[in-house]
């Protein structure tokens, strides 16, 4: 565990919030900071089919303006070693099975206790 670790709780299922969480995670990881993204509740849907998130139609507009799109940011997070954790309780609440999640994203299963144990006491924790 890194002292200056960034722990992001991604609980909103809105495209804009999930997109920004990915951007923050990729930026922090590119700056050699350890990062964990904790997807729960509505945000967990982004790891099944992000195109179904409210506001997802903005992805094309962002790309046309030179802003990294959802896929690009998610791929960067994976390549940069960001830990992606999905809340087991959130998956159960949404009726999503672990095998329904994207196979190209290494996911660490866990819950609130696992996420808190992973977080650094001296790091930052943000809710998006």
UniProtKB/TrEMBL annotation:
Q: Which Gene3D superfamilies match?
A: DsrEFH-like
SUPFAM superfamilies tied to this protein: DsrEFH-like (SSF75169)
Q: Which PANTHER family match?
A: CONSERVED WITHIN P. AEROPHILUM, PEROXIREDOXIN FAMILY PROTEIN
Q: What is this protein called?
A: Uncharacterized protein
Look up and give the organism this protein is from: Magnetospirillum aberrantis SpK
